[in-house]
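Protein folds are increasingly written down as discrete tokens. With that in mind, we are printing a sequence and the tokens encoding its fold.
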Amino acid sequence: MMKKSWMKGVAVVAIAAMSMGMLAGCGGSKDSGAQQSAEDGKTYKVGVVQLVQHGALDQANQGMIDGLKDNGYEEGKNLVIDQQNAQGDQSNLQNIAQQFVSNESDIILAIATPAAQVMAAATEDIPIVGTAITSYTGAKLVESDEAPGTNVTGTSDMNPIEAQLNLLLQIVPDAKVIGTVYTASETNSQIQVDILEQIAGEMGLTVEARTISNVNDIQQAAQSLVGEVDALWLPTDNNVASAMPQVIGVTDENGIVTICGEESMVRAGGTATYGFSYYKLGYNAGVMAAKILSGESVPAEMPIQYMPEEDCVAIVNTDAVAALGIEIPADIMEGATQVTTGSTAE
């Protein structure tokens, strides 16, 4: 049931781009061109900027570094990596961008939509490879997913929203009203909620949405949904992901099942998800970055990559299930990766 619904949510944003992205592939094999360039004696300067610290972005960050390494570009050998975390602050992003430009970075790796937007506004010359970005076109980072036409490319974390909603209905079959919380200023979150509302409407479901400005608003927003919704669906929103304990404190106390946009939110206490690995998402972006450093390609000509359906799995938090006192259907549990609260992805 979940597999057949993967394409629909992505199609709302870019049907043609999805197929093109899949053709681009998610491979991580070493490239001879990258290896040759990596051995030319040059040391490359790589600026890495992560919007905020939370599990998914941390995994994507490590994946990017490993993707570069496996394709011949390694810190201490031919890379100098400047790792920066903006801690969710826009002024920090501006300062980091100016630092990367002043240092004449050879490439910038940007993790999350706001980080990529600020980097792109700061330079049209330095190649930028993004990851954990839902829609590059929606964020106005590229002209199209098939042919970016700018100095930006990367991997998209558009998640299988319809499949996740189907998972929610398998766990809470009588659900009629779905709640969600997201950051009003995050383009990626708004796009996901728009897709959720469209799909939910087609299923005869109602969506109750609450917007927040920052992490300080999350507990109140979640509390306002108690008694109004039958279950919760959360997008891959950076503020929400950073403050999952506050959300779960409300949902566990009130017996509300929480379906999350990605794995690390489930490991932070959410009930379940159907999705892909952010490490692999970042790894694929690292491979793209290696091809740019090698001179094999340029961002303007590198299609945005989407994760293929076969990389998605169901993930269930057994601690959350116990806390809610619910039973997950056996056919879901048989094929699911079972995790506990506080566990980390391998």
